[in-house]
Amino acid sequence: MSSKTVVFIHGLYMTPLCWENWVKRFEAKGYRCLCPAYPGRDKSVQELQTPEPALGKLTLSMILDHLEKYNRALDEKPILIGHSMGALIAQLLLQRGIASAAIAIDSAPPSGVFTTTFSFLKANWGHITPFANQDSPVIMSFERFQYAFVNDMPLNEQRIAFERYVVPESRRIPRESLLGARIDFRKPHAPLLLIAGGNDHIIPPDLNEKNYKKYKGSNSVTDFKQFPGRNHFILGQTGWEEVADYCLSWIASRQI
Q: I want to staple 11 with a disulfide (CB 3.0 to 4.6 A). Which of 23, 30, 86, 205 is the partner?
């Protein structure tokens, strides 16, 4: 029986609001769409601008456990669609057997998958630097957002995206992912699609491709698609509809 429930998982510096356009498009196709927030993050962007002390303690493990419990409580195995750190979370949850399929868009790398591409190091330095207090949330500046998320977009569109979606984040999440986000790439899994943006600075396309190739030892369905010219804000960048429709077509082609 095919799944009609889609669970969208947001990434770092974002809230479930980043999926607003995708939800409308998927609902128009008959899907039930759910957008859970990370623990303690189910508030408006405005409310989250002043970070609470608990944010500095938030870890990737806490988010995984929270979302596993959320998904196991559903009446059917959902299709997981995640972006960035949310895409890595989708990969990790797929490994736990709780999804009928997963789509990982611009996925943060699992442990053991790395690149020395300059843009990756520059864009990620703000939250992985060892010189900052681990308990102190990191606040994304507009200048860093321009480079890491919305490069090559018109200035007014960059500003609109920054003001509508961006929130402070825990440093512990990306730091834990570097060593603690382990995937058994040979383990059988439900269908998985990995998507890369060809002009993504923070998760460059070669990193997505390395992630994909790690699954080559598995006999399970694993697909890869790169969209040329897309940056890390692929969810809201002009032409996002093409990416969303590709995901819908992939789900249909795999009879999920």
A: 86
Pick the closest to residue 97 from 77, 115, 112 (CA basis). 77
Q: Tokens 């356009």 — which residue? A: 21
Helices (H), the chain: 20-27, 45-48, 60-72, 85-95, 118-128, 142-148, 155-165, 172-180, 205-213, 240-253
Question: What six digits make up the tokens of 134?
Answer: 């681990």
* pLDDT per residue of the chain (256 residues) written in tens, 0 to 9: 578 999 999 999 999 999 999 999 999 999 999 999 999 999 999 999 999 999 999 999 999 999 999 999 999 999 999 999 999 999 999 999 999 999 999 999 999 998 888 898 888 888 878 877 888 999 999 999 999 999 999 999 999 999 999 999 999 999 889 888 999 999 999 999 999 999 999 999 999 999 999 999 899 999 999 999 999 999 999 999 999 999 999 999 999 8
The CATH number assigned to the domain holding 247 equals 3.40.50.1820
Beta-carbon count within 10 A of 29 CB: 14
Q: What is the pTM assigned to this prediction?
A: 0.96
Look up the domain containing 41 and give its range: 5-253
Instruction: Report the alpha-carbon distance of residue 33 to residue 24 in Å, rounded.
Output: 9
